[in-house]
Amino acid sequence: MSLTINRTAETHPLTWRVRDDGQPVWFEEYRAKEGYVGAEKALAMSPEEVVAQVKDAGLRGRGGAGFPTGVKWSLMPKDDSLDVRYMICNADEMEPGTFKDRYLLEKMPHLLVEGMIIAAKAVKAYRGYIFLRGEYVEAANILRKAIDEAREAGFLGKNIQGSGKDFDLFVHTGAGRYICGEETALINSLEGRRANPRAKPPFPAMSGVWGKPTCVNNVESLCNVPGILNRGADWYKGLSAEISDDAGTKMMGFSGCVNNPGVWELPMGTTVRELFEDYAGGMQEGLILKAWQPGGAGTDFLLPEHLDLPMDYDHIGKAGSRMGTALCLAIDNRINMVSLLLNLEEFFARESCGWCTPCRDGLPWSVKILQALVNGEGQVGDIETLERLCHQLGPGKTFCAHAPGAVEPLQSAIKFFRSEFEAGIGSKVGNVRAIKGIQPNLA
């Protein structure tokens, strides 16, 4: 399928500079196409003015949670005596089915560098780190070259562009753990510690990297910032569809057995049907859409009847799922949902840091039950046990959001496809577990 998209600076702030040959946009080309104009404007403003402009634009974090970026910046200490501060980019894109940040890192490295310069001005940071997924080797090489170019051009280092602002930037590659997507686990890993989440409070804004005030933002969040500083908050709010209360554009995509899997920059509020049919090209010949996930493996399944939903935080949330990363996964009619859930929960169980009991013990328990159901050896009560696990591992029951995200697809699969779980319950011993030393009464 061939899809022609007319990308312009006014409509596609993230991707309008992307080259047709797929090569990265390096400094000279980026600079010639309005590159670092937003950073120059930010350097001439006060930190409070930069924060206010991003707040007014309504930018919400693009890592999955959707927390307002400007509000997050405003939580950094107002005390200027705390002059050692850090700006961190979370580029540890380990969510299965998600590849939007990789696209931006490899095609538009200077967009991220510029976004981090602006963010550093807003939060008064003197040093920044890009915490990068270790498997993104090509992205690491591209980023390091872009950072060197920016430093040589005077946009990094001491007294950036004569503004009096000092800021330098470094790439730090992780060891490949999903839990590092949680910002405090990321901070621990950056310090050379085990990647366990930290207790909050204190939040990173008060005590982050090496005990200093720290702000952590996602790749796509930071890549939105240069356009906002360059063209203004009203322009940014006008980019989204009228039906959506969320501002700007979003990297959205589809994977699975669709005709044209990929990722595209689209207005917030674009319907899932448009994304699925017009961009992803619908299901491959002979296949039928059975279910889909809106934004990564840790989001609840939705059904074909939900395709007319606008893709934004509120509409997807009201339907019972989360927009997450907005990289959708199409499930076709050949897939058994119990087998699919076994695959997902094995991943989440393996990636648990083991810090809290519900996650450490509950996720392997769910894997054991799902494996039994896949083998046709499930017992009466197994589905109810899975439902209790979904509750016991839900929001507020664990140390971080890993387990709540892990059980989201499980709880929705049981809700929509319970019969497939029931089909895995065998008939041995009257479907009753035999307690050691006691035989069940089959009379």
Automatic annotation (TrEMBL):
<dbReference type="Pfam" id="PF01512">
    <property type="entry name" value="Complex1_51K"/>
</dbReference>
<comment type="subunit">
    <text>Composed of 13 different subunits. Subunits NuoCD, E, F, and G constitute the peripheral sector of the complex.</text>
</comment>
<dbReference type="Pfam" id="PF10531">
    <property type="entry name" value="SLBB"/>
</dbReference>
<dbReference type="InterPro" id="IPR037207">
    <property type="entry name" value="Nuop51_4Fe4S-bd_sf"/>
</dbReference>
<keyword id="KW-1278">Translocase</keyword>
<keyword id="KW-0408">Iron</keyword>
<keyword id="KW-0874">Quinone</keyword>
<dbReference type="InterPro" id="IPR037225">
    <property type="entry name" value="Nuo51_FMN-bd_sf"/>
</dbReference>
<comment type="function">
    <text>NDH-1 shuttles electrons from NADH, via FMN and iron-sulfur (Fe-S) centers, to quinones in the respiratory chain.</text>
</comment>
<keyword id="KW-0411">Iron-sulfur</keyword>
<dbReference type="InterPro" id="IPR011537">
    <property type="entry name" value="NADH-UbQ_OxRdtase_suF"/>
</dbReference>
<dbReference type="GO" id="GO:0051539">
    <property type="term" value="F:4 iron, 4 sulfur cluster binding"/>
</dbReference>
<dbReference type="GO" id="GO:0048038">
    <property type="term" value="F:quinone binding"/>
</dbReference>
<keyword id="KW-0520">NAD</keyword>
<keyword id="KW-0285">Flavoprotein</keyword>
<dbReference type="InterPro" id="IPR001949">
    <property type="entry name" value="NADH-UbQ_OxRdtase_51kDa_CS"/>
</dbReference>
<dbReference type="Pfam" id="PF10589">
    <property type="entry name" value="NADH_4Fe-4S"/>
</dbReference>
<feature type="domain" description="NADH-ubiquinone oxidoreductase 51kDa subunit iron-sulphur binding">
    <location>
        <begin position="338"/>
        <end position="383"/>
    </location>
</feature>
<keyword id="KW-0479">Metal-binding</keyword>
<dbReference type="GO" id="GO:0010181">
    <property type="term" value="F:FMN binding"/>
</dbReference>
<dbReference type="InterPro" id="IPR011538">
    <property type="entry name" value="Nuo51_FMN-bd"/>
</dbReference>
<dbReference type="InterPro" id="IPR019575">
    <property type="entry name" value="Nuop51_4Fe4S-bd"/>
</dbReference>
<protein>
    <recommendedName>
        <fullName>NADH-quinone oxidoreductase subunit F</fullName>
        <ecNumber>7.1.1.-</ecNumber>
    </recommendedName>
</protein>
<dbReference type="InterPro" id="IPR019554">
    <property type="entry name" value="Soluble_ligand-bd"/>
</dbReference>
<keyword id="KW-0288">FMN</keyword>
<keyword id="KW-0004">4Fe-4S</keyword>
<dbReference type="GO" id="GO:0008137">
    <property type="term" value="F:NADH dehydrogenase (ubiquinone) activity"/>
</dbReference>
<dbReference type="GO" id="GO:0046872">
    <property type="term" value="F:metal ion binding"/>
</dbReference>
<dbReference type="GO" id="GO:0051287">
    <property type="term" value="F:NAD binding"/>
</dbReference>
<comment type="similarity">
    <text>Belongs to the complex I 51 kDa subunit family.</text>
</comment>
